[in-house]
Design a protein that fits this description.
heterodimer, A: about 325 residues, globular, B: about 290 residues, mainly alpha, ABC transporter involved in vitamin B12 uptake, BtuC, 2 strands
Chain lengths: ~325, ~290
């Protein structure tokens, strides 16, 4: 499928989602769908650096919180509307991603990972000490009372998040099929060989880090209006990080479809479990799934589907896929 | 002596004491990450697990937390060998250790944290022992015994490990495994077995560090991740895999944090370690005592 057709299709899916949401009478479902779409953005953003290049970012919370708090602060200061706040948050987080990448990504990949983990702690320290946005007490955000066209504010937020989700999936897919994406894949497979073949390794990694960071920040910008009250402890919840890592790894990291599958599956599951059981238990389940998938099915659900289509499977590296294939053969 | 000088001196002394304890937390990472190349980011969560074991045995049976820490090194050692066996089987053998190995340890960190939360809730827990409370005073400088004991025990732990690494065959083999696996095989040592022992040791230090942590301050399940940046900063600053370097770096970070907390307020001190980490990574990734 060409990029143009894909974009058209993605937009149609987005329009269908927004249209469907207007028929839903219970607003809770729209809230839940917003949550899932937010994870589509976060997981896709994580995958651009983690899946395509192979650099693991454990600082999703930091980027999300920078987006969130910059939106909250600018809204308080200048009363800017969300469509203006989103690109600002994106620029800010893109710059942070670029800076983090520039300082640490030139070294071994693991240093980048550790630095991103530490980044969350530092950003949290700054926010906790920043009185303008309430410090550790938190801040209330006033939603504007009049919403044109959409009727309710939740519907408006849902529309914005749908736009962001469609945009990030399109960006991921365009990257995947471009020379830029092939360069990233070459770095993932063998960085030294890529550099020797003339791939501008550092530049590509930095661009990927910036795009990934920017998308995470943009996902954070509408969040204060969705929550209406934000404070540091819950804004820096490790749940955002663990989900944005688990979703691509469960779905499959080599294609744009993987993070989407992971986000829809794990996101819906968590919404259902939060209502039915408890929110701690559902986080535990996400952690367990993450560990099971990295051990037993390193290529995620997409990898399992692919191996069922009959390609050869190495049981040593892909245990779960190997079991499925033998099951399928014996049933035939 | 001026009041500022007194405060400064007190901050330096408590920074050194806390720094010694940081060394006990960091030494496990120094072994796993520095010598074996395994980025065990779940280590701080294991330390918290050690703290809660000390809490349970102390509050139920009145056992001394340090004694619990020492006894728990044995199950922690076996837990470590088990974890390494899984890690080696699932990642090292397939050559996918970087991304998926990191995700694996991150998953473990998360599972341990949420598991502890489900069992103990989010309240702060503390232990009781005769040495928690009293403190010696020398002018403006106070030496709380609850800080002195973890410091001394940490120093002993590091000296013991250093002697083990330099003097014994297994210890030297661990140091060698990171440098040249093939040469080690020629010397008649199996790299996987050596790494398993080393990872067990690294995990065993978490039970001691956990006991020290709960003596120093009340603990709560999600505290571990605040220490990740700090611990890795210490390891990188100290030079990957160097124990004396780890100790000196830990004291430097401890003193810097303590001075910041005294003069600018404790809410700023978490940012210090990150500053050190970034500076170390940018200026000298090999650390103060590492091979360049």
């Amino acid at each position: 499928m060409s990029n143009g057709r894909f974009i058209l299709l993605a937009c149609l899916v987005g329009v269908a989602l927004v249209a469907a949401s207007t028929f839903v009478t219970n607003e809770y479902y729209v809230f839940a769908a917003y949550f899932v779409l937010q994870y589509v953005v976060l997981a896709t953003a994580w995958n651009i650096l983690g899946g395509y290049v192979g650099y693991v970012n454990f600082g999703t919370t930091a980027f999300l919180a920078i987006g969130l708090y910059s939106a909250a602060a600018l809204n308080k200061w200048l009363d800017l509307p969300i469509p203006v706040l989103i690109p600002i948050a994106g620029l800010l987080c893109g710059a942070v991603g670029l800076a983090m990448g520039y300082l640490t990504i030139r070294l071994r990949g693991v240093y980048f990972t550790i630095a991103t983990l530490a980044l969350s702690v530092v950003v949290q320290t700054f926010i906790t000490n920043w009185d303008y946005v309430g410090g550790s007490r938190g801040i209330y955000i006033m939603r504007p009372t009049d919403v044109p066209v959409f009727g309710s504010y939740v519907a408006y937020l849902f529309f914005l998040m749908t736009v962001l989700a469609v945009a990030s999936v399109v960006i991921a897919r365009v990257i995947e099929r471009s020379t830029f994406g092939f360069g990233l894949a070459a770095i993932r497979d063998d960085e030294t060989a890529a550099a020797a073949s003339g791939v501008p390794v550092l530049r590509l990694k930095l661009v990927a880090a910036a795009i990934s960071g920017a998308l995470m920040g943009m996902a954070g910008a509408p969040l204060p209006f969705y929550l209406t009250y934000v404070e540091p402890t819950s804004s820096f919840s490790l749940a955002y990080t663990v989900n944005s890592v688990a979703m691509p790894l469960v779905g499959g990291t080599t294609s744009w479809l993987g993070p989407v599958i992971g986000a829809v599956l794990l996101g819906t599951m968590q919404q259902a479990m939060t209502v039915l059981i408890s929110s701690s238990v559902n986080l535990l389940v996400v952690g367990v799934l993450l560990v099971i998938f990295v051990i037993a099915a390193p290529n995620g659900i997409l990898g399992l589907i692919r191996s069922l289509r009959g390609k050869k499977v190495d049981p040593e590296t892909n245990p779960l896929a190997a079991i499925l294939v033998t099951e399928k053969r014996s049933s035939q | 002596m001026g009041q500022v000088a007194g405060l400064l001196l007190d901050a330096i002394v408590s920074g050194i004491l806390v720094g010694g304890f940081y060394a006990a937390m960091a030494v496990g990472i120094s072994i796993a990450f520095g010598m074996l190349g395994i980025s065990n980011i779940a280590h701080p969560a294991l330390i918290l697990l050690g703290s809660f074991i000390a809490y349970v045995l102390n509050s139920q049976f009145g056992m001394d937390p340090i004694l619990v820490g020492v006894l728990a090194t044995i199950p922690f050692y076996f837990l470590g060998t088990l974890l390494y066996t899984a890690y080696e089987f699932a990642f090292e053998r397939r050559g996918t250790q970087l991304i998926r190995g990191l995700a694996f340890f991150f998953g473990l960190l998360f599972i341990t944290e949420v598991g502890l939360q489900l069992i103990f809730g989010v309240d702060y827990r503390l232990v009781e022992a005769p040495y928690i409370g009293p403190s010696y005073n020398f002018g403006p400088v106070s030496l709380p015994v609850r800080m002195l004991i973890p410091f001394l025990a940490s120093v002993l732990l590091l000296i013991g490990l250093q002697i083990f690494f330099v003097r014994t065959f297994t210890g030297r083999a661990i140091m060698a495994v990171a440098q040249d696996k093939f040469a080690l095989q020629l010397m008649g040592a199996a790299p996987v077995r050596i790494k398993r022992i080393a990872f067990g040791l690294s995990t065993a230090t978490a039970s001691l560090a956990g006991a020290f942590l709960i003596i120093l301050q009340p603990v709560e399940p999600s505290m571990g991740r605040d220490y990740i940046g700090r611990i890795f900063a210490i390891c990188v600053l100290g030079g990957i895999g160097s124990l004396p370097g780890t100790f000196i770096a830990a004291v430097i970070v401890g003193v810097a944090e303590s001075i910041t907390a005294t003069f600018y307020g404790p809410s700023w001190s978490p940012a210090i370690a990150f500053g050190f980490l970034l500076i170390a990574l940018v200026v000298r990734p090999a650390g103060l005592f590492g091979r360049a």
